[in-house]
Amino acid sequence: MKFYPEGQNPALLRTFDTLEEVKTAMMNGSVIESRVLLCDSEHNLHVDLGIIRGVIPREEGAIGIDDGTTRDIALISKVNKPVCFVILGFQRDDYGNISAILSRKAVQLGCKKTYIDNLREGDIIDARVTHLEKFGAFIDIGAGLNALIPIDMLSVSRINHPRERLYEGECIKAVLRKREPQKLTFSLKELLGTWSENAMLFNPGETVTGTVRSIEPYGVFVELMPNLAGLAEPCDMLFEGQRVAVYIKSVLPDKMKIKLVVVEAFEESEMAQELTYFVKDDHISRFDYSTPNSPKVISTVFDE
Questions:
Q1: Looking at residue 274, what is its pLDDT?
Q2: Burial state string for 10-47 with b = 16 or more CB within 10 A and e = fewer than 16
Q3: Which of 39, 110, 153, 255 is the most exposed place for a label (fewest CB within 10 A)?
Q4: pLDDT at 236
Q5: Share of the chain above pLDDT 70, in %
Q6: Structure pTM?
Q7: Sequence-ordered list of residues with C-beta below 8 angstroms from that of 274, at least 6 positions apart, any chain
């Protein structure tokens, strides 16, 4: 069974018109999603089910909350965001109001057992960017369970911060790079094409837009695609992250080099651009970035 990141499957997002519909969903064990209205002082999550309100008790909010391996910030940060859950039962308060008792943890346990624990290295999944840190991007790999894409696995072209490549809330593809007993590490760069696949999109004589990634005494490295950069002649008054127009002098596949000339520099810095995926399957066994005759070999082998 496949699970999706929270908020990525519209079929799960619903409210109910009658109490009988809520009871039926409970009996069927239906997985439902709803937006969190508030996180109360005891860190219980409150969601709108339509006819009644639902409450996810703190200990049912996520795997690891009860034993302290998951911090309460993981619950607080869910306010105004969709979360998944199943309905466990009902309770009535002192005023006679009925609310549903929900569990997000139960969905996560099911996701882990039937989906995530069965992923192999090289499997490609749907993910959603939850937040960005300088060292990498955290992604929801299913039912609100998080994993990390380290910054050096976001692209072949080097960046200073993941926000230069991704934005929070973005739906992406990711490949399982390494499985460890208590940690899964994912990657993005193997899905963004080889040097040749990217270089085929550009021709000598064209003038295109790129992003300054590194300024060296001998020249300026300009990113044309996340997995493709070229070297321009030295140019004053540029800064890293700046958008520039570059003239393509030559494309040299055997050396994996593209020679550029900066034509114009723009004032704005780069915002995260839409990603182009070159892998269409749901599994990749090997990624050979280098061209066949290149003296530099860059590849990734995914082992089961």
A1: 86
A2: eebeebbeeeeebeebbeeeebbbbebeebeeebbbbb
A3: 255
A4: 83
A5: 99
A6: 0.92
A7: none
